[in-house]
Input
Amino acid sequence: MQTMTNLMEQAWAVRAANWPSRITFDYPSQTLPVSVTGTACALNCAHCGSHYLRHMVPIQEASSDRRLDGASSLLISGGCDLDGRVPVMSHLPAIASLRSGRRLNWHVGLLDDAELEAIRPLVDVVSFDFVGDDDTIREVYGLNQRVSDYAASYQRLRASVPVVPHVTVGLHAGQLRGERTALRLLRELGMEMLVFLVFTPTAGTRYAGCQPPALDQVIELLAEARVLLPHTTLSLGCMRPGGEYRAQLDTLAVRLGMNRIVNPVAAAVHAATELGLDIVESHECCVF
Output
């Protein structure tokens, strides 16, 4: 049986063989998050409960927000309707008016063909949450969708626009369910980049009392992904637990060969220097 140390060494060897000695640390201060629904969401998902929408600028206020002048890109998102789609159609003129000189990252859920065609002229990239377990889709989102529906939506997106899948490790109340299925499916469907998020218990949500996924399980999954996807850019995204958990996660993520980390802890930056990696800093979402 392969030990964790051996797996991490294998993952680092894969990285060293396929990538230059460079890592990108993303500090997304120049990406302004905009919500087309304000703080409203019909799904009230178990892990979010609209909490993360509170940190976004409502679309009606975006043009006058003082941070817009310093934004070189926008994250266009919002709460979902009961079909798992972010209702963007009525806001397209307002979004178009904000685009000049800025790149747009869309996080819009399970759009249909007509909606995808409508937003396509305004898309620089789409961030797509990919789930590999039917029970998790029902339990967390409350949707009557299946993994096959997510795969079909991803394929539709990929055929029309640049798309970056996101996999949340431990999304099912901190348990790993379907993450490896998601990796295998995405490898078959194709991707240039994959963003990992890590379930974070959040006050006021149905999962507030849950624990984050076990750190060794997260590290094992990330190392397996590095080996399974040698030519895919792997990023550790913005949602992950804080404190000592984050410190260990970030540092080990560097050592197992991740390509990008959003808002890394100081120890991770130090680890990158120790490994002889050239550090590149970005100030937008990691999908750009």
Q: What stands out?
A: The domain at 4-282 is CATH 3.20.20.70 (TIM Barrel). The first helix runs from residue 4 to 18.
